[in-house]
Each structure stands twice: as C-alpha cells, then as structure tokens.
C-alpha cells in the first residue's frame, strides 16, 4: 500500500481520535460501574440548587432540573460576567451558557456541606 505523507498523517489523526474516544468510553464505563448508585445524590443536590436559585431576584427563569445540571437565565440588568464574578467571591464555580444564561453542575466532589454553603450564599449576592 502506497500512502503519501498527507494520507499517512490523516490516518494517524484518525487513530488518535479513536484512541481518545476509547479513553472517554473507558471513563464512562467506570463511572457507570462505580458511581451509578450515587447519581441520584447529584440530581438531588442540583434540584436543591435550582429551588434556591428560583427564589432569587437575579434569576429571570429556570430550565427544568432533571439531571445534575442547573441552567438559569439572569434577570435584566445582571450580566453573566457580574454573576460569575460574584459567584467566585463565594467560591462557587459557574459557567456562562448561551445568551444571558448560567450553568452550575453538581458532581462526585460536590458535598452536602458545599450545597448548604452555596444555597446560603445566593441571598447575599448584590448586583
């Protein structure tokens, strides 16, 4: 088989992508085998975050919280950057989403104590 250097490079890239996909699949399989029973804890914590956020004046609307992901739209006059900055002041990690939305995610390392601290922090946010 005669491969040009361009074809060989493309083949190598395909192999690398398959390898990366294998690593991700292995991580997913491990999580399902070892952490599936505690996913309900993540989902419960996310629902609690959603309930607490829904009561805040800086939240315009909430997406339904069905997993460990909480997405909400900020009220007019509050920017994503303002929210992220304020959240960081309280050691809360948040990510911007589309338009004027923000996303929070619960996970294996997010404890009940962290949930309580986060819920207690929201009413202290001033914009």
Structural class: alpha+beta
Helix content: 40-55%
How is the main sheet built?
4 strands, antiparallel
> What strand line-up does the widest sheet have?
1-2-4-3
- Total beta strand runs: 4
Q: What would you note in describing this structure?
A:
The chain has helices at residues 5-35, 39-54, 80-89, 112-121; strands spanning 59-62, 69-74, 95-96, 101-105. It is of the alpha+beta class. A four-stranded antiparallel β-sheet has the order 1-2-4-3. A hairpin with a 4-residue loop joins β3 (95-96) and β4.
List the helices and strands and how they pair.
Blueprint lengths: L4 H31 L3 H16 L4 E4 L6 E6 L5 H10 L5 E2 L4 E5 L6 H10 L6
Helix pairs in contact: 2-4
In short:
The protein has 127 residues and is an alpha+beta fold. 53% of the residues lie in helices and 13% in strands.
